[in-house]
Please model this.
Amino acid sequence: MKLTIQEVAEKAGVGVGTVSRVLNNHKSVRPETRERVQAAMFEMGFVPNPHARRVAGGKSYTVSIILQVIGTEFYLRLLNGLEKTLEAHRYDSALFPLIGRERIERYLNSSTLAYQSDGIVMATHNLGELYPDGKLPTRQPVVIVDGMNLNYDSVYLDNRFGGELAARALSGFDGQMYAISVHQDIDEVFAKTVFDERIEGFKAALEEAGKPLLESHVSTVSFNLDNARIAAREILENTTMPVNIFAAADLVALGVLEEAARLNLEVGRDVRVIGFDDHPWSAERGLTSVHQPVEAMGAAAAELLVDRLSGYDGAPRKVRFEPRLVERASTLHPGD
Amino acid sequence: MKLTIQEVAEKAGVGVGTVSRVLNNHKSVRPETRERVQAAMFEMGFVPNPHARRVAGGKSYTVSIILQVIGTEFYLRLLNGLEKTLEAHRYDSALFPLIGRERIERYLNSSTLAYQSDGIVMATHNLGELYPDGKLPTRQPVVIVDGMNLNYDSVYLDNRFGGELAARALSGFDGQMYAISVHQDIDEVFAKTVFDERIEGFKAALEEAGKPLLESHVSTVSFNLDNARIAAREILENTTMPVNIFAAADLVALGVLEEAARLNLEVGRDVRVIGFDDHPWSAERGLTSVHQPVEAMGAAAAELLVDRLSGYDGAPRKVRFEPRLVERASTLHPGD
DNA sequence: CTGAAAGCGCTTACAG
DNA sequence: CTGAAAGCGCTTACAG
Model:
């Protein structure tokens, strides 16, 4: 049923070693030979057995992906970026959602799982909260994504800068200025600071533009559309138009759009709003948003880890991603 | 570094075959021999290499767990039950969160992953929505948990009966009767019908008790505490006490408790409330709740699958779990 | 650049 | 009940 390297070798008229080398992108294979082998594999629909590979190679070719949340669009996109890149390097990925603190302990203590993976990608900010020295008790290479840690390779977005971009775009408009931040459940294992950073950048740049943000104009909602709508309503019903709102996430900005529609307010004139994320649906909603290349961040993290697994052993590296503002109808300029 | 079966064999003074047999709970090993080998393994801290096992045995000893949601307490508990039982049978589990429809296609099409698992546990109700014949396009054994499917072994809770239990408990009390249901995001791949079933059972039993539930007394919230509080407030502020509320989930009932506290209403007298789940924290909150043995359901599903993987090939089996009511302070009887 | 061979750590008939 | 041996499907020095 299942094909083996042996059969591919016969078909291609080479030895199994050569097939293996092709499989592993080994440099010393003549281009023609490589092509012939690849053609054979393709024709036969050959899929190598990863388990055999692991036993023979002494590596597991599996990476653990540890996330504290799974249900949001951001993490879905991040996951896609990670998995796709890992797959391209012929690594498998095993997912560990960190709901509840017990799970991380369990993960780290599970000898079976430890056997399974060669490295870890972790999406989190302050490991120091859980481990005093800020290090995961493991000898596997670790890469942090959507966060920063001095001990490990880290891939992060400059969220503060994103907030500044929003401020610069809104500060030129008339009307009151508002911001809606996001808080998370207290019982989550790792705190997420990205929302705070965005708001801080927003405040700082507004201050600099001579239009400081009133403390009372900052509200905080939990991460769901219904709550966003409530916060938006609060603002829209008690303020004279026009009003400018920076939402720390697209989902929150969506709440503003929906409430504005309900109140028959014109978005772009009466209400200007900027979200954060630039998720795929933002474009069709005409939402101006601070764009973050989520998939690319996942891919970058995967590359860093694969790099380490391939032998790189230098100091921790930092990859900074810079957000950019994508302007759409929700921040129309007067006269446009 | 890593120990092998070979070293265990030497230490125990047996052949590697015997060690392997002990590892696999093979019957034909003398009890004393078995003990000696186990002692050796324990002393050395031996952990078998699962990859070698897979190559040699031709099975992957991995089960895929496909869930549409991960972030809730219910799924966390279910997952724990599944993983623990699978582990006891020396199976690994790989988790696949189904956020977005594309992911299931991707999972099923990934040849690497297909290689990885021997069977699938899936938490979902209507596979028929995605596949006309109600079957997953795979030849792996499939077990459905927290749902029912005629094609596969299924483990489910009688949610309707749970609603009936709540109705029977509340129907004896004075005051108006209310129910709060839960709806889910439309874009979720698989619809969850458990909440509807609970409410239906509640309605039916109330009808039977001669106290039919008014349509206008049923509200529906999305699954988060803030929304539950809003729905609770709506009821509590517009009704004369006492009032009886059945919440389709503990989280929703918690919203009722919190709003009652805010309005200085006495729970158990002014407001009687019954939740559903009986999550661990319900006890300390004094919440009467319909108990479902979530971990046990996970364990049962795991057992069914392991059974199939061990050769069982009979018709699909159904395992029905029956909920029971756990009465606490939130439904105090008058005079207690 | 490539083939033949040894080896990865297990499992499993095959003989006893 | 148990050992010795072959085999699972790969990888990787080792020679050429």
Notes: Chain A has three domains: 5-57, 62-157+294-321, 159-291+324-331.
